[in-house]
Amino acid sequence: MNKDAFAKTDEYLSNLGEDLRRLIPLDAKTILDIGCGQGLIGKKLKEERGIKVVGIESNREAAEVAKVNL
Hints:
Elements: H1 3-23, E1 30-34, H2 40-49, E2 52-56, H3 60-69
Parallel strand pairs: 1-2
Helix pairs in contact: 1-2
């Protein structure tokens, strides 16, 4: 996946992530994010709520970025 594709993914997930984050109970401690992409939603959950996020991603390039974010 090239950097332009990552940028488009970032933009998409920033909008989607806000909607998804609202669905997660406020008392959640750990989240399993299947198909986590670059881990952007999980990164935001960690920053906002201190939630532990474990991600699974089949795209190797995205998974490498997710390792840093999660």
